[in-house]
Amino acid sequence: MQIFQAKVKVVWLVVGLLLLAACGEQAVTPEVTVEPATAVPTVTVPEETAVAPIAEVETEIVAGGRSLGDPYTPELGNTGYDVQHYTIQIALDPTVEEFSSTVTIEAEAEVDNLGELSLDFIGFEIEPLLVDGVPALFSREDDKLIIQLPEPLAAGELFTIEVSYAGTPDDRPSRYVPFAESIGMFYGDEETIYVLSEPDGARFWFPNNDHPKDKATYRFEVTVPEGLTAVSNGTLLTTLEDTPMPDGSPGTTFVWEHNYPMASYLATIAVGEYKRVEGQSPSGITLRDYVFPDDRGAFVRSTANVGEAIEWMSDLFGLYPFEEFGYVTVHAPGVSLETQTMVLLSSGMLDESTVIHEMAHMWFGDWVSLDSWGEMWRNEGFATYVTILWENRDDPEEVDLVMEGVRASLEDDGIVQPLLNPPPRRLFSTNSYFGGALMIHELRQTVGDEAFFAGLRTYLAEYGGGTASDAQFQAIMEEASGQSLEAFFEKWLLEGGLK
What we know:
Layout: E1 2-3, H1 6-15, E2 31-33, E3 42-44, E4 62-63, E5 81-93, E6 96-109, E7 114-120, E8 125-131, E9 134-135, E10 137-141, E11 144-153, E12 158-167, E13 184-188, E14 192-196, E15 216-225, E16 229-232, E17 235-240, E18 251-262, E19 269-272, E20 275-280, E21 286-291, H2 296-302, H3 306-317, E22 324-330, E23 335-336, E24 342-346, H4 352-360, E25 368-370, H5 376-391, H6 398-412, H7 430-447, H8 449-463, E26 466-468, H9 470-481, H10 486-496
Parallel strand pairs: 4-7, 5-15, 21-22, 22-24, 25-26
Antiparallel strand pairs: 1-23, 2-3, 5-6, 6-12, 7-11, 8-9, 8-12, 10-11, 13-14, 15-18, 16-19, 17-18, 20-21
Helix pairs in contact: 1-6, 3-4, 4-5, 5-7, 6-7, 7-8, 8-9
């Protein structure tokens, strides 16, 4: 995520950059005595081997946990199952904030006798809720949708949940995003809709396992009023004309599919009067953007080097990990977001720094996501540092001077907090961005360029498509460099690296 803040803007002015923004005993054969044929046979069992009646054993039904176990965000995520795929069928009209949707979740049970599970989901009226086509009982508690499965499931068993719901999204702030009045789905200016879900906003618009540790593939079938365009992650498969809106008015359905693992907070939908701009990187990566006509000039200028940049990052970190890439402009106030393959780009942040920052997240944050939200420095620190490298790609020695400017600015502001587990209200603080970037630069200086970039490529190759922890990242860099980095990581993550 890139955020425009006064303090951040000052830092960029100082450094020459702009940042907008888990056997029993053998049985004894009984003695049998046969009486005369007219007698009833009797069976005599020696006293010491008498067998007690077999007691009935009830199967213990297991309930999945209501937290995925991230100590920083214990309210997020659920256990007992692993989501494989989401299909989101949704009708959106920018002039009417109430909407209806059906979400189909394909999942795999991870424990035996799973009889209850939970999803993260806030608000809305739920109509039918089906499990494998059978109506299931459900309840709501503490921002969780709790589902009683019609039959217990065995570990490894596949099942499907279908949730149909309607209503207006809850207008509630996130404790991790104090600069926004709410999070999730927004109805913007000029009859537009967009989604901002980092870190806990996906649960405000669709039921899901809302933590990066449970990634899945996605299909979006978005119906909008005739004349509007719906944009989402992945590839646009088809556009279905003359599909009516729920009120019967003319509409169009846009079908998008993304067949790479994706965290729920990166799922996106944007609706508006867009123009599609198509291109290709030098190596053949499909580039497709959706731009408001009024943004076209500034957008073209800020994205002029996108093809070159995606190749440059591929050379440094490994091939671009997804099927397509692009940006969609939105009327978001000072916030852009690295939504996977389709970056949400604020109309007020049409500059190359933001464009490159969000592209870098495709590797750092999207392809390899965080085990814990308290490790945000790896997401934002890398995106910030890669932007600095790009800005100075023709003069690598200048990077050291820029980072000295970053250090001086952070020291002047008194920002010396440990990078690990910042207060929730400071999750997206300057320290996560620039403090993280400074730690990464000093790591590079400590291990040397060869070990640094080799370690990053190994890290992205080993954990790509999933998540990684700070400890796993540290282990990769130690292996690449052949040295212990315990003291280095402790200094930055636990003590505050500027002390």
